[in-house]
Fold this protein.
Amino acid sequence: MRIPILIAGALTLASCAGTHPITPVAAADQSVFARSETVRVTLTNFKFGPDPLTLVAGKPYRIELVNQADGSHDFAAPEFFAASRLASASLSEVADGKIELAGGDTKSVSLVPAAGEYKLVCTHTGHSALGMTAKIVVR
């Protein structure tokens, strides 16, 4: 049958939509993170919430990522992380533009975002094809 082959091909292509290496940059003034607003982002099977994630450019945030699923997911937004300035303590959380979360895991990252619209995906095999994509809007 051709349909299962087409679906398998689409899932394979979606899983190739990976991230590229980035080197997160620390904010020059780390004291700004004392005034961070906490924003919660949930990861479920197969959705990010809220969508879009709307932030204000230049404002410090603590983004709390909560994986409500039993299985693992990631929060992959390499362009967003490359354009943001991170708290020193958050630099190690971001690997190649993404943050990995095991099932039931919660992690946070503190950053100051730059204006723009950024793509957010889960890069685990087939997850983006199943709809696990979103947008980050920074005004």
Summary: The CA atoms of residues 77 and 120 lie 5 Å apart. The chain has one domain: 2-138.
